[in-house]
């Protein structure tokens, strides 16, 4: 699968799994939802806005990307990707399976250009995954970008992990969105970028 070649080239021995931030350096964990916001609508809107800003800063329309989506066997009927892609294009979707803690997971992969991804829709659906708000999808979604040599992963309304093949690939995000870095991991992230 194409994502395996991407990982082999830029992220040797990395596995796309939950807790991605703790599996690779350099990486940044951003806080999407403001824990001090008590108005649900404002909290959700803020999470969506931050996810979109990070994505848009990292991806240009013509960037070659690979979307990797992990779908639990129980959610297989909900794997429809068409709302998240440009329907005028024809995509080759690859699939394989793996097990994690005795749960069968289907891994789908699509190679496309960033402009062919309905990014705002897919990010919103992932942000909403634990909030009971539509649209939502329960799947893990990773967006791999060949130009920036990065992996972008919104895990839910709380946060987003961004991994880079080297520190310089992430430095602009680190500087521009420093206020959004998750405080819990801030010290480790600062050491990565400032030695």
Provide a compact summary of the structure.
The chain has 5 helices and 7 strands; from the N terminus they run αβαβββαβββαα.
Instruction: Trace the largest sheet across and list its strands.
Output: 1-7-6-5-2-4-3
Number of E strands: 7
Amount of helix: 25-40%
Low-confidence stretches: none
User: What integer is the average pLDDT?
Assistant: 88
Helix-strand layout with pairing:
Layout: H1 2-10, E1 27-31, H2 40-58, E2 64-72, E3 93-100, E4 103-113, H3 119-127, E5 140-145, E6 150-156, E7 159-164, H4 167-176, H5 183-194
Antiparallel strand pairs: 1-7, 2-4, 2-5, 3-4, 5-6, 6-7
Report on the architecture of this protein.
It contains five helices and seven strands, in the order αβαβββαβββαα. Helix 2 crosses helix 3. It starts with a helix and ends with a helix. It has 195 residues and is α+β, with helices and mostly antiparallel strands. A seven-stranded antiparallel sheet has the order 1-7-6-5-2-4-3, with helices on both faces.
Structural features:
195 residues, alpha+beta, 7-stranded antiparallel β-sheet, 30% helix, 27% strand
